[in-house]
Give the backbone structure.
Amino acid sequence: MRKKIEILAPAKNLIQGIAAINAGADAVYIGAPQFGARTNATNSIEDIAEMVRYAHLFNAQVFVVINTILYDDELEICRKLIYQLYDIGIDALIIQDMAILEMKLPPIVLHASTQTNNRDPKHVKFLRDAGIKRVVLARELNLDQVKEIHEATDAELEFFVSGALCVSFSGNCYMSIANGERSANRGSCAQNCRLPYELIDGTGTTLIQTAHLLSIKDLDLSDQLPALIEAGITSFKIEGRLKDIVYVKNNTSFLRKRLDEFLENNPDKYQKASSGRTFYNFEPEMDRSFNRGYTDYFVNKRKEKIGSWDTPKSQGQFIGKVLEVKANGYVIENYEKLNNGDGLYFVNSNGEADGAQVNIIVNDIVVLNVLKSISVGTTIFRNSDAEFIKMVEQERSAIRKIGVHLHFSEIHKGFRLLAIDEDGHKSEMILKMEKSLANSGESVIPNIKKNLSKTGNTVFVVDEIDVQLIDNWFLPISKVNEIRRDVLQQLVEIRISQYQRETHQIIKTEHPYPVEKLDFTYNVSNQLARNFYKRHGVTEIEKAFELQWDPGKSRVMTTKYCVKYELGKCARFQRATMGEKVVEPLTLKHGEIEYKLKFNCKPCEMEIWEKDAELEFVDEDEQMMI
């Protein structure tokens, strides 16, 4: 049996969800009215129902995100919401809080969000054994780790392959709530990681005056799809429920084309996860929509610097260097790529991120809308592509069609049109009318085929037409068009009604959880979740950070990203070139907010603590010997 491989796209709202399906997504994930990790991306039950209907037309799936932690007074509200979502036909819930597995639920499929510590085989196998069908793996994993998880469990594995990266382990970032009472695990991340910071060493010396020291590049694993499939990934996820429609359509289209190339070369082992094919009126390129520069993160282990220290905003597409400064503008490499209205990004002579808009291009001179001092040799990027945006925003820039065969024949009292789509669904209509021979001796068949092929704005494209007539009957064009419209509209309803949704009834289990003691990073915030873990052998459960943090003294982040490595001061990987060691503790400072950095070199992780925390610092050489 061939394995289905899926592209999973974000849907901020119904319009963007439909656009993602049209661009080639096999599934979309969308926020519910409550309890999603993006409070600015909620949707009504009515809109989600419409999303379900449209997606199911293409055998695509709709996953609804309920991935915040829940408080006790929200549990019943959440349970009722889940029943509503099940009743409108959604395919699965993406969840973080284990309280949901304790609820009396309809037979709905559950996926474990990346916030549920999905970083090792034991945890992933536990979730699968508890009834979770799919697990969204941690972004920090490398190919070997993914393969190890795949070999340990038959859970479906989902992996982020494009979009913004959380610098922290997902679900374990508490910077936002510690400094403003906005919880990321409650859907209200303040993005403290994108702020500018000073970096101060243990002697009080400022090593870096100001930079976005926790901001990292965006993810692009489009070149890694074959390797990830081989490692066990079956769903490729695009980040971006807060991004615009151009980003969604462009990234989805780009990955669709990449994946289709792979599927076409491996037809015996793999197949597309949904129906239809997409026709594009633009050439998708990921660097032409929002990005901070790209990285493959840790999928091929730690190899390069991944920080985006100049700005947390979009860098965009590389254009070229400034070759010459003119009185009214600049000569820029590859200026012919630019258009009036484009937004440009560059780092100015003060080392600061800067930008301007192209006003006009005269001969080879790029004239900006504001006067900027840009030196020769400055690298120019385009972070807003005016013509590309205009092109992609058009509704028909990506059109998805389902292949159909039409069979037109005569019956005793009229004619019959049978439509069979690419998945074998059948729709039939009868045209009752008196038959009369055409006045002309020319065959009517070419004209019938011509009008049957006019599928227009329907979701169908005719791949084959078969017309079988005993005589050269006269047929009004209006009647041919009418029966075609009716048979295709009926086929739409048949496809939706015959869609097979998978169901699964959660049954309470008692197999042991991989650890017996849970600290605050397990985000246990209600009694049902406590009951779940206790039944699975957990003996000690600390309350979620949101319920008990100690202001000024808490660990607010754990990350694989490392400031020392970005500085070139990592004794593990950069010993030959690092020079003198930095004096610890290193401190990040933004206004009155300060954080201490602690480096755990053996697991290759960095911790971020609030300024009043009392920490014990061990030399990195000693750590690696332990």
Observations:
- The first helix runs from residue 14 to 22.
- The chain has a mean pLDDT of 95.
- The longest strand covers residues 398-411.
- The domain at 3-165+217-275+282-288 is CATH 3.20.20.70 (TIM Barrel).
